[in-house]
Write a structure and sequence with these properties.
mainly alpha; two-stranded antiparallel ribbon; globular
Length: about 250
């Protein structure tokens, strides 16, 4: 497939899948439940954190998590006490459990108390080209408090050659335009041009079949390779092609 034909093909698929109906089966539906910026950020971040495995299970547990937070995640995080945290002990999604959740809420309180919101933190560490350094520094700040060693694995680090799929997905939700009705676009000081594709087994396999990716592992080096190719197709909004790659892999079994 010629480069121009590939772009047309992917543009068509991206437009096909970036539709409001996409929300019905996708974790992005959780932050869509809220209207306040802080609630959207927190709901999106926590949902992205547990977004691996069976999609039905992800949605069930993400809704359960919002219920445990009184459907007011920011208020819960800023005003919870030890009694409130006790109600979270039984939460579990795969290897993410109540111990991890307790620390995540404590760390989020720290982030919001120190920086005001998550966007402010990311802006100060973002580079013009991408947000991978900002993700690395976010993890450092997030785990700057005393924490269980087991909990660190739930935030990936690009500096350790991780593709950081879940947190890149969260950033897509926060930064890309809400015009198509899927992403929320509540962060206005960062650009879609800085985003990286949430690389996973589906998008990786499709990207290789289309000649967009040669590296076999879905790691940080593969992400940089894929980023370069997607930016050559659309420098201003490269991650719109996540919809094309994901849709082709999951819905069309490409």
């Amino acid at each position: 497939m010629k480069a121009s034909e590939l772009k047309d093909f992917l543009d068509e698929k991206a437009a096909l899948y970036e539709q409001p109906k996409f929300i019905e089966t996708d974790p992005v539906q959780i932050p869509h439940l809220f209207t306040e910026k802080e609630d959207i950020e927190i709901a999106g971040f926590l949902t992205a954190t547990i977004s691996w495995g069976n999609r039905k299970s992800i949605l069930t547990n993400a809704h359960k998590l919002m219920h445990l937070l009184g459907n007011s995640p920011y208020d819960f995080i800023m005003h919870h006490d030890q009694d409130h945290l006790g109600s979270l002990d039984d939460f579990v999604h795969r290897t993410f459990n109540g111990i991890d959740l307790r620390y995540f809420l404590t760390a989020l309180q720290h982030i919001y108390t120190k920086y005001g919101d998550m966007e402010t933190f990311y802006v100060q560490y973002a580079s013009e080209a991408h947000l991978q350094n900002a993700i690395h520094n976010f993890k450092k700040e997030f785990f700057s408090l005393e924490h269980p060693a087991r909990t660190q694995k739930h935030i990936s680090d690009p500096a350790k050659n991780s593709a950081a799929k879940r947190i890149n997905m969260f950033l897509r939700w926060m930064i890309r335009s809400p015009k198509a009705g899927v992403d929320l676009g509540i962060w206005h000081t960062l650009s879609p041009a800085q985003l990286s594709c949430p690389l996973d087994v589906h998008s990786g396999n499709v990207a290789r079949k289309l000649g967009l990716l040669k590296r076999k592992q879905n790691d940080g080096k593969a992400l940089l390779e894929l980023d370069k190719k997607l930016r050559s197709l659309d420098a201003l909004d490269p991650v719109k092609y996540d919809y094309a790659l994901f849709g082709l892999g999951v819905f069309e079994k490409f």
